[in-house]
Amino acid sequence: MTTGSSMKAVKQTRSKAKWILPLCAAVVIGAMALDTKVVRIGSQEDLRQQAFNPDRFGTETFPRVRDYVVGKAPEAPALYEALVADKDAAIAEFGTKAGIGAVMPVTFTGVLGEAKGGIFNVSIDGLPDNVRVRLQSGPAINGTDLRDVTGDIAFGAFKNQIEYQDAGSGINRAMSAEVLAGLDRDALTGKTVTVTGAFTLINPRNWLVTPVAFEVTQ
């Protein structure tokens, strides 16, 4: 009797296992399905779309940077006088502290001299002769002036230093596409231009300006 009862119990256990295991599997699969989100390839939620795109960032960010610089920029002679009188006060009023030096917005009308590598010397009335102003005109735009000038594009918002650097390059490319596209650089020497832009203040007598607005007036 004992042996028969044991065999019967074993058969019952095996029988239960046959339907319990599939049931457990179905429960697990159902739970996984509830926790799984289907993302269409190419959609905004596609991981490939979520990866940092410096050109998209630049296109989205440059208009805000441009408006900030245009709204903040003093005339070049007034900025120079302020820097000579009290550099710290001038930085506090007009600039943004960043990296190796403050980034300063500026606006001016001047005559372009000879260019080297797309960088023009600019002669500006009201500035002393020993103040050298140079203007980046592309096609390559270097530096992070446009990224840093607003003070609110911080390293902590990016995954690493490479992304942070790429963000600056993306803004530069967006500016170049909007402001400098179609510029005949070979014909600019001797032309009068009105420019608004930004530069990193290292030497008060040597400015390399990255434009956000560029107009040939004569």
Walk me through what this model shows:
The structure is a single chain. The protein is an alpha+beta fold and about 220 residues long. The protein has 7 helices and 5 strands, in the order H-H-H-H-H-E-E-E-H-H-E-E. Strands 1-2-3-5-4 form a 5-stranded mixed beta barrel. Strand 1 (about 105-115) and strand 2 form a beta hairpin. Helix 3 (about 55-70) packs across helix 7 (about 160-180) and helix 4 packs across helix 5. The chain is globular and about 50 Å long. It starts with a helix and ends with a strand. About 30% of the residues are buried.
Helix-strand blueprint:
Layout: H1 2-34, H2 47-50, H3 54-72, H4 76-85, H5 87-94, E1 103-116, E2 119-123, E3 132-136, H6 145-148, H7 161-180, E4 192-200, E5 206-216
Parallel strand pairs: 3-5
Antiparallel strand pairs: 1-2, 1-4, 2-3, 4-5
